[in-house]
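Design job #97: recover the sequence.
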């Protein structure tokens, strides 16, 4: 079983891999044994062309994508003794060696017949995974030597890469001209409200997630705590991790003892364990807590004695300042 997901200089798309899953289901139901060849750049622990003895196989199936180019032609040469079939593919040039080298081409388009349904459409159902917005900052140089932004981002992104979730990188900065960014707060809130979780080291990543009723796993990237810690306390939000918890815990030695960190930090476990505990909480009890806090924020817009903020005293402060200045 091969496809563009097999080539070192190919690519594995979600559609390709789902098309493969559809074909795998058909072969399994028919009782046919098979191996799948993966690109080492996509699945380092899979079966690669370098591991395959062509003589061990009698048939080759090429799944999805265009049957075109030198890499497909090389398959015909290397597996010349095999019966070769392409399934769910696009035919770009029907006369090319990449196409004519197959004994049978079951095309989805380009073969002269009407278009066929792409194999990915009828792939087996997939498990649900959480959709996670990631809102990070690499700035805030005003904190000087207390900045741990790069270390925090490195730990977070490395850890997130290993989580089974759909990651969506987001930016709180608005831009009316860059299509990749939201142009209004309403656009960003529309995205946030559809997420299961936000992972952030930004104050507004935390506040806007909670405003949308979405739990936030927040990390304060400033050693000793700064505005993210203060805002988590103001919101009554517990899922907060200090920079030291990540930067010092992640430097622990193999025996689990601290490498420059405190015994207290070591006792809490590794950085990954800390993040995983809050991840699990956010996706369980944290959902209801975030919804409660978000509802409180919205209710306070029309209730005079709702959740206080600095703007509540602004008019009085302006009046007092003006009177004091007039007195001078």
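Job complete. Output follows.
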């Amino acid at each position: 079983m091969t496809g563009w997901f097999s080539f070192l200089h190919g690519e594995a798309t979600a559609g390709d891999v789902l098309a493969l899953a559809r074909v795998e289901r058909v072969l399994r139901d028919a009782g046919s044994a098979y191996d799948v060849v993966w690109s080492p750049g996509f699945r380092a622990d899979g079966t690669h062309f370098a591991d395959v003895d062509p003589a061990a196989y009698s048939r080759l199936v090429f799944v999805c994508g265009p049957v075109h180019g030198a890499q497909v032609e090389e398959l015909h040469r290397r597996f010349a003794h095999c019966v070769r079939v392409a399934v769910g593919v696009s035919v770009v040039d029907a006369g090319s060696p990449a196409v004519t080298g197959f004994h049978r081409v079951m095309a989805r388009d380009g073969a002269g017949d009407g278009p066929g349904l792409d194999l990915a459409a009828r792939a087996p159902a997939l498990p649900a995974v959480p959709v996670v917005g990631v809102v990070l900052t690499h700035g805030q140089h005003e904190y000087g030597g207390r900045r741990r932004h790069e270390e925090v981002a490195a730990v977070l992104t490395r850890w997130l890469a290993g989580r089974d979730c759909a990651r969506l990188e987001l930016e709180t900065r608005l831009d009316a001209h860059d299509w990749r960014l939201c142009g209004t707060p309403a656009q960003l809130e529309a995205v946030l409200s559809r997420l299961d979780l936000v992972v952030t080291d930004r104050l507004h990543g935390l506040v806007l997630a909670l405003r949308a009723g979405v739990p936030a796993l927040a990390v304060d990237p400033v050693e000793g705590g700064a505005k993210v810690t203060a805002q988590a306390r103001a919101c009554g939000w517990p899922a907060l991790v200090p920079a030291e918890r990540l930067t010092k815990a992640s430097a622990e030695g193999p025996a689990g003892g601290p490498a420059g960190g405190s015994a207290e930090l070591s006792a809490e476990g590794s950085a990954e364990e800390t993040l995983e505990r809050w991840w699990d909480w956010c996706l369980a009890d944290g959902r209801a807590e975030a919804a409660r806090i978000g509802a409180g924020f919205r209710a306070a817009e029309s209730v005079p004695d709702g959740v206080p903020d600095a703007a509540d005293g602004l008019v009085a402060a302006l009046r007092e300042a003006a009177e004091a200045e007039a007195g001078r």
